[in-house]
Amino acid sequence: MQARHRTIPSVLSSFTLLLGGSLFALTAPLAANPAQTGPTDLTSQALPAARATKAVAAKTAKPATPKASRPATPPLPAAAPAATAPAAPVGTTFEVEAPEALPVAHWSQADARALLVAIKGIGAEGLFARDYQPAALAAEIAKGESGDLDTLASRLFIWLAEDLRDGRTPMPAREQWFAVDPDQDLHPNSQLLAEATELHDIPGVLASLEPTHPDFALLKDMLAKAKDPRQIAMIRANMDRWRWLGRDLGLQYLMINVPEQMLRLTVNNKIIHSYRAIVGRPGKTATPQLAEQVKNVVFNPTWTVPQSIVVGEGLGKKLIASPAKAKREGYVATEGGDGTITVVQQPGANNSLGRVKLDMPNEHAIYIHDTPNHALFALPARALSHGCIRAEHATELAMTMAILGADLPPETAIEYNLSGKYTKVPMIKPFPVYVTYFTVARDVNGLMRSFPDLYGRDPAVIASFAQPRQLHTTQRKSNEAIIKLDNPL
User: Which residues contact 205 (CB under 8 A, 6 or more apart)?
Assistant: First the structure.
């Protein structure tokens, strides 16, 4: 015990140094890790601050008139050539939900002209002007104010706002995307339409929907300079992925980029550390895209061995027959009255979860944990797990999370870690986790680059851009079957 306590000052000293000597108060910004440039330093052309929209009561919408069939969209530019992508999204067949009825507002000619200007310039946002019928809108504007102009302009504004807020890619092309975007609730169509027309600020309301993460601004800058059609298509696809997430991710969060196989901790809008990550193998064990909350930090976790190993590999019977072997290897095996054997691996150096676990309850049984096999983090290709995410230096990450999210004193976090005893620390502050899939993004040096499409998810997104825009529905996430593996490690 005394030897263990003697290690605490040295561990605490290095741990405090890691976070720049901060007292871990969220009211004071934490220092960026020297090896990781903060987002605000990555580009000389910073993203302008998003316009703060005024609260405007949504006006009572007119009953929507039945929509006529949309005319076929003309062929798109070569930026997203259909010849290089599948004709249809790959994946599970979806039950398509019905589109929502769209509200209608009164449009002045000046506001309608402002909408037309926004549509003609929408290519800078990675979208296509053709999707929003500029010729039809111009023709209605020329006729003067009318009910037809109100209906058409309202519909086109909402289509544009939906694509800027939620993304253009239809849900069937968002393979294994289970992260629910809250922006439809925070900024509903009727509110956006009322604000734009009552304040006569069409461009301002549309601009306010742009994702706030600095990577989106960098992608937008890349798009303006790109010449290669394939690169343009990739940039567009990844800009759209940012729209699939909430516009504002919060001040502190974890983000895992699966193609990069990296995990980043952001606090007060600064990346304070990046960690190598091990993610799921392609196929049934692929790591799904999620937006969850860390609920508990678990020091010295136990691991309930899956029945596929207990029964399928015969581990249960071996341990019941040899209690000495079970004790030596850190297992506790119990046999129920019906003959079912339960095996729990106790905390220790050989525990399959390692020394820590970040508990983020979700229907996929995916979580972040340590591993006893740290040599795997040196591999360049780390898609090796059954779906869960293993983090390099997970103990450091877990202690930081407990300090930031549970107000745990650093000394106590270290005590819990070194105790060797199972200890669960509930979080008292929100700490989101975003498991994302970006194939064009910043690397650990702050430079934009492409990453391997580990799960082959780019073609479906790119192909959707080569097709006419689809009407949005009330669906918020993939309705593919959830694959909950018996062994998620």
Answer: 53, 161, 192, 195, 196, 199
Domains of the chain, earliest start first? 2-42+248-436 (2.40.440.10), 82-247 (no CATH)
Kindly report the number of other CB atoms within 10 A of residue 50's CB atom: 15
3-state helix, strand, coil in the chain (%, to 5): 35, 15, 50
- Decide: pTM greater than 0.85: no
Nearest to 402 by CA among 24, 34, 27, 31: 24
- Tell which phi-psi region holds residue 273, choosing left (phi > 0), alpha (psi between -120 and 50) or beta: beta
Mean pLDDT value of segment 451-473: 95
Write out the H or E segment, with its range, that includes residue 229: helix 229-244
Residue 126 contacts residue 236 (beta carbons within 8 Å): yes
Pair 340, 360: CB distance under 8 Å: no
Q: Around 158, how many Cα atoms within 13 Å sit in the side-chain half-sphere?
A: 25
Lowest mean pLDDT of 150-159, 310-319, 353-362, name the range. Answer: 310-319
Would you say residue 175 has pLDDT above 80? yes
Q: How many residues does the chain have?
A: 489
**177 DSSP assignment:** B
Per-residue CA distances from 246 to 142, 158, 166 (Å): 38, 18, 8
CA–CA separation, 484 and 489 (whole Å): 11
Dist. CA 477–CA 182, nearest whole Å: 11
Token pair 């919060």 in the structure block, residue = 250
Contacts of 265 by beta carbon, 8 Å cutoff, 6+ apart? 254, 271, 272, 273, 274, 275, 397, 400
Per-residue burial over 104-134, b = 16 or more CB atoms within 10 Å of its CB, e = otherwise: bbebeeebbbbbbebbeebbebbbbbbbbbb
